């Protein structure tokens, strides 16, 4: 039994011109600046598909306070390196302002562009990936089987991409719609065993539609690199505190699922079709409408569904002393709303997409 699972977070940030707030293809220059800094920051940062993006990864942490501090640190470091180049960073999952993305260099990205065309060319989206340690692939797949219905709730909480190419998309998370264009993206079936999971992954790669296992873009998967499950369904959150809450809930969700597996409690057998609808609804409404309840697969208010997730993982939160801080953070996000609500409120106040981005750069760090 793993009572204090380690958690790591990867966040994808937008790189912007510090005056116009339009996305800028500066990832190579920012990475070079980080390497010159010699403060260990080059190990945290990495390039992404598009050069208007920068990714960072925290180290694995077992105390959520330490993880929250590291998220804040790397956001601030990213901003510092960008500032030295006349740029800024924003934790936005899509660019509110129009943008023509610039594909990163390298054989892999070139292959993706040739294979996927506009899907690759237009894919300027920022996600948040949460890694939680598991004891084995068998435990990891048992967790994947049991967290399926709850992943849409994480998307709703994190939704932070209402605007696309200069207009309101009508969605709280339009990133989730754009990301869903990849052939392997989205909810998946129940696997039942690690063997069956790996068989499916190998069969998918063998079709030739994917370059390699790195292109298995399930909403949650076994990591290829670390002994973790990787939950990939969320938008990058505007507020670092929301990222920390998301990671806290994900760890508790993984622990709850592992306990269910050890107690021989079978996973919910909701179909992929229903889970896709729940994901669509979460991306459409965020926290401002009805979601599909993970237990019943019927409509319920966003607050009811979010509180159902909290109740589902309550025991695990209590066992890691995260219950009270998570309760406070949850109350805050339900009151304030997610990044999508904040962005739309800023548009109402300012009437300007440019001003939205300017203000969101300040909220990022």
From TrEMBL:
Belongs to the glutamate--cysteine ligase type 2 family. YbdK subfamily. InterPro entries: GCL_type2/YbdK_subfam (IPR050141), GCS2 (IPR006336), Gln_synth/guanido_kin_cat_dom (IPR014746), YbdK (IPR011793). It catalyses: L-cysteine + L-glutamate + ATP = gamma-L-glutamyl-L-cysteine + ADP + phosphate + H(+). It comes from the Bacteria. HAMAP family: Glu_cys_ligase_2 (MF_01609). It is an enzyme of class 6 (ligase). This is Putative glutamate--cysteine ligase 2. It holds the Pfam family GCS2. One of its GO terms (molecular function) is ATP binding. It comes from Wenjunlia tyrosinilytica. GO terms for biological process: modified amino acid biosynthetic process. SUPFAM superfamilies: Glutamine synthetase/guanido kinase. Its EC number is 6.3.2.2. Keywords: ATP-binding, Ligase, Nucleotide-binding. ATP-dependent carboxylate-amine ligase which exhibits weak glutamate--cysteine ligase activity.
């Amino acid at each position: 039994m793993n009572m204090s699972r380690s958690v790591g977070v990867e966040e994808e940030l937008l790189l912007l011109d510090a005056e116009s707030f339009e996305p800028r293809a500066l990832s190579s220059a920012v990475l070079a600046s980080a390497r010159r800094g010699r403060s260990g920051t080059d190990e945290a940062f990495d390039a992404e598909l598009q050069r208007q993006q920068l990714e960072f990864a925290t180290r694995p942490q077992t105390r959520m306070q330490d993880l929250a501090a590291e998220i804040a640190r790397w956001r601030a470091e990213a901003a510092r390196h960008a500032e030295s180049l006349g740029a800024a960073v924003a934790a936005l999952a899509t660019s509110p302002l129009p943008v023509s993305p610039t594909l990163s260099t390298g054989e892999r990205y070139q292959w993706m562009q040739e294979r996927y065309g506009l899907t690759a060319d237009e894919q300027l989206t920022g996600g948040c990936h949460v890694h939680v340690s598991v004891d084995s692939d068998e435990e990891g797949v048992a967790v994947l089987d049991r967290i399926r219905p709850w992943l849409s709730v994480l998307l709703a909480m994190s939704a932070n991409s209402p605007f696309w190419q200069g207009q309101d998309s009508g969605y709280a998370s339009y990133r989730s719609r754009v990301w869903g264009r990849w052939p392997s993206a989205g909810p998946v079936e129940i696997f039942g065993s690690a063997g069956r999971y790996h068989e499916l992954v190998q069969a998918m790669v063998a079709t030739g539609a994917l370059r390699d296992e790195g292109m298995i873009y399930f909403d949650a998967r076994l990591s290829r690199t670390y002994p973790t499950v990787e939950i990939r369904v969320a938008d990058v959150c505007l507020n670092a505190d929301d990222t920390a809450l998301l990671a806290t809930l994900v760890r508790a969700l993984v622990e709850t699922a592992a306990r269910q597996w050890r107690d021989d409690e079978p996973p919910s057998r909701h179909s992929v079709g229903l889970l896709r609808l729940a994901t669509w609804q979460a991306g459409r409404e965020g926290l401002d409408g009805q979601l599909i309840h993970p237990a019943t697969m019927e409509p319920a208010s966003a607050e009811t569904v979010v509180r159902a997730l909290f109740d589902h993982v309550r025991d695990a939160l209590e066992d890691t002393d995260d219950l009270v801080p998570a309760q406070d953070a949850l109350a805050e996000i339900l009151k304030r709303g997610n990044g999508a609500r904040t962005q739309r409120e800023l548009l109402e106040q300012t009437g300007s997409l440019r001003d939205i981005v300017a203000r969101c750069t300040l909220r990022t760090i």
